[in-house]
Amino acid sequence: MTPAPRPVVPSLSVVIPTVGRDLLEGCLRSIAEGSHWPGALLVVDQSSSPAVAAWVGRLRAAGLQAGHLPSSETGIAAATNRGLERVRTPFAAVTHDDCRVAGDWVATMAARLASSGMVVLTGRVEPEGEGAISAIKTLATPVTYTRPLLDGDVLFPPNMGFPVGVPERIGYFDEHPSLRYAGEDNDWAYRALRAGVPIVYDPTVVVRHVAWQRDIGPIYRRYARGQGAFYGKFLRRGDPFIARRAARDLLRGPWLLARGLATRNRDLTAMGRGEAAGILPGILAGMRGRGQETGYGS
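User: That's the sequence. What structure does it adopt?
Assistant: Structure tokens below.
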């Protein structure tokens, strides 16, 4: 992985949280082989793998301003925050170690952010591989969201960017353990929309999400539990909108399960089982937790 130098976009830093999976090497390669390099690349490493430092070191030797930030903490929210705290450029972008960015991702992300104002930008997340995957978004038309939706969440954190003023305004990601696997992202997006920061979906900003897991069932359960914790956090504060969302999802899980069993749809059955098993325990965990204790869960 020794690419030739590329033109640099000095206004953008890219943050990649990782637990040291081998998938990271492919993610780094996709950035290194893109049309442009970011002003800084910050890899926040929660593993003890020497390979991560070696991969980042090769990029640095090639001329890319890449930093390896070892961390003893756990959780993607903590890793993302530690990277964002080190950003010194006007804009930050985030992708994950199991993603591959498009060749024009850095340049397109920077250009869209420069012309969009105080927004959170998210984009297409396409599937790659034959394994189990749930976080994809392939809508072909752009959408600007200015208020939370009752029937879904709109931020795709493996493909997002924003001016550094956004986390300064709404806070960083809530690091409470109950929110992991989905809740931290949707909590942050909810706070952004409530604070008047639009979330803009732009289909020209593209990453591919590698489907490396084999069983979709545990993924749905983990995501449902994290989502429930997000609901519990705001239910603890008496949020009526979140009360409606939580009630909807508590009813939806059993309905999806019954529908999946009736139609012999394995994916729908797994989704229903995951939500039926995860949402309520997540709500209870979120109601007991205190995201504020991390300093980021405003």
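The longest strand covers residues 199-210.
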